[in-house]
Structures are given as C-alpha cells and as structure tokens.
Design a protein that fits this description.
This protein is mostly helical. It folds into two domains: 94 residues, no CATH class; 163 residues, Orthogonal Bundle (hpI Integrase, Chain A). Helix content is 48%, strand content 10%. It is built from twelve helices and five strands. The strands form two sheets. The chain has a three-stranded antiparallel beta sheet with strand order 3-4-5. Strands 1-2 form a two-stranded antiparallel sheet. Strand 3 and strand 4 form a beta hairpin. Helix 5 packs antiparallel against helix 6, helix 6 packs antiparallel against helix 8 and helix 11 packs across helix 12. The chain is globular.
C-alpha cells in the first residue's frame, strides 16, 4: 500500500486515499497541468532554480530555506522577486492541498510590495505607429499591427492559425483561446483584415499565421526579439516587449472613448478592475491642478 494513505479507526481500516504523487517531479507535473505553455515554462524555470539553490527535495525544505532563497533574490527587481516567490508559494500550497506534504514552509513568507509601474510601459500612439511603420518585413509588420489593434497576448499570437482568421461584419475577425480556456472573438479593422487576406492567400487553413523559418509556429522568444529590434530601430532604449502593445491598445482605446467594458472584452480581462487600471495609470487631472 505504498501508493495509498490508510486512515485507521481503532486499528480497523475505514478509508484508503490513493497517493496523488510519488515524487517531486510528478508533483510538479500535476501542479503545472492545465496552465498555459508560457506559464509552464516560467514556473518550471523558477522551481529548477529554487531546488538547485536548496539542494533538497521538497519534503526536506524548511521555512529557513525559503527565506534564504528570498534573500538571494535581492539583486532582482521587486516584480521579478514577487513572481519567483509566488511560484514557490503556489507549489507548496498545492502540495499540501493534495496531501503530498503535511506542512507548508512557504506560507509565512510575504511577497515583496511592488510599485505599480504600468505608466512606464505605456508609450504614445505616435511611438507605436513609428515602430510599425519602420518595420521593413511584411510578416513582422503585420505581427506588430495585430499585437496593437487586437491587444492579443504573445501566446495567443503564436498559436493563431489561418482557420482562426475569418471575414467579419465590418472587416474581419480572429478567434483566440486565452487564459482559463476562454475563447474570444476579436474584430479587426477592414484595412488590417485585407492585409491578412493578401499575406495568407496561399496558406493552408491549419497552418500557423506567423511561422518560423522551419515552418512551425513562432516561439514567443522569437516574437520578443522582433519587437525589441523594431523598438531599437526607432531609438527606444527601453526593454520593450510584445505586452507593451497590449498596454498601448488598452490605454489608447480608452483615451479615444472606447467603452471600458468593450476593452475588457477585447483583452479578455477577468475583472473590470484590471481594465480600469489603465485609466488610473494616465489620469486626466489631479487635485493639484486646483491649487494656486
């Protein structure tokens, strides 16, 4: 019965609970199940570094080990520290929840306070347009336009296939499978849809829209390199990522009086509070304007 936990009452077995995981590797696989590929990659790297740092199995790790690891992250930005520690806390919470561990050594560890730096990652409409206009390659230019006009996440862009691009009411539309397995239908402006029609006229419906040189789907790291090269081309020194186009989409559409619920629906935000954060990040006025 090494794969089960037996609960006894007065030496008499009354219930047998199958063991959910036999080792740390299997536990981590269960924990990662159902998460987005990009999240799985990030969590796997986080846990690999953590376990290498401690040199222990999960059952041997103490609160002191987690605290020492937290201290070792001091050279990173608070947001990166928070993400790595959140990964560890999530795994230990899961391990206790399914009975793999009797105690959660990461529970008392507090996540670092992170300043809301969203405003630093929102660039102007002119800047976005300049990035797009100065991209010389047709595929990459179309990719940048889609990131901006649809606000899709990089994982959603990479998984997009030609069968997901359809004619719409006033142009075209794309179908994307987002976080939590939720499907979104996003309308595209007519001129952008026509560019898609021209670009993919000889493409197979089941092939990816944005393909690598080997013919498969682009990896998000390749999209990152394309975006960073496009930003540097116009002299941007900031570490621009594909997600900046999503921020720009939200901010600029709200600036141009798009209904906030429509922006929420387009971006696939689970909460309206997330969408409203873009309004607060660029306030139109403050009480200081009323001072002499």
């Amino acid at each position: 019965m090494e794969n089960a936990v037996v609960i006894k009452n007065n030496t008499e077995a009354v219930n047998v609970i199958p063991r959910q995981a036999n080792n740390d590797e299997q536990l981590i696989e269960l924990w990662l199940h159902g998460k987005a590929p990009s999240s799985q990659e990030g969590y796997t790297n986080d846990m690999k570094r953590f376990l290498e740092f401690t040199g222990k199995s999960l059952s041997q790790i103490t609160l002191g080990d987690v605290q020492q690891y937290s201290d070792s992250l001091g050279h990173l930005k608070p947001r990166s520290q928070m993400r790595k520690l959140a990964s560890i806390k999530s795994l230990f919470t899961f391990a206790c929840k399914i009975g793999y561990l009797p105690f959660n050594p990461a529970a008392p560890v507090k996540l670092p306070t992170v300043k809301n730096d969203l405003a630093e990652r929102i660039v102007s409409e002119d800047t976005i347009q300049s990035i797009i206009d100065n991209e010389p390659k047709m595929r990459n230019k179309l990719m940048l336009k889609l990131l901006y006009y649809s606000g899709v996440r990089v994982s959603e862009l990479c998984s997009l296939k030609w069968c997901d691009v359809q004619e719409g009411k006033n142009g075209g539309q794309i179908t994307v499978l987002g976080k939590g397995g939720k499907t979104r239908f996003i309308a595209l402006p007519a001129p952008l849809y026509q560019e898609f029609v021209t670009f993919g006229k000889d493409s197979d419906r089941d092939s990816h829209v944005f393909r690598s040189q080997k013919g498969g789907a682009l990896h998000r790291s390749q999209v990152m390199r394309i975006v960073q090269a496009a930003a540097k081309r116009i002299g941007l020194s900031a570490n621009v990522s594909p997600h900046w186009f999503r921020h720009a989409h939200a901010s600029h559409s709200l600036d141009n009086n798009a209904p906030i619920h429509l922006v929420q629906q387009t971006l696939g935000h689970a909460s309206l509070n997330t969408t409203s954060g873009y309004v607060h990040a660029k306030p139109g006025e403050s009480s200081g304007m009323y001072l002499n």
